[in-house]
Amino acid sequence: MKINAFTKTYEGRRVLDFPGMELERGKIYAVIGANGSGKSTFAKILTGVLKADKGRVHTDAASVGYMPQKNFAYRMSTKSNILLAGKNEEKARRLMAELQLSHLENKRADHLSGGETARMALARLMMKSFELVILDEPTAAMDMESTSLSEKLILEYVRETGCALVLVTHSLQQARRIADYALYFHKGQLLEEGSANKVLYIPEKAETKQFLEFYGA
Question: Global pTM?
Answer without folding.
Answer: 0.94
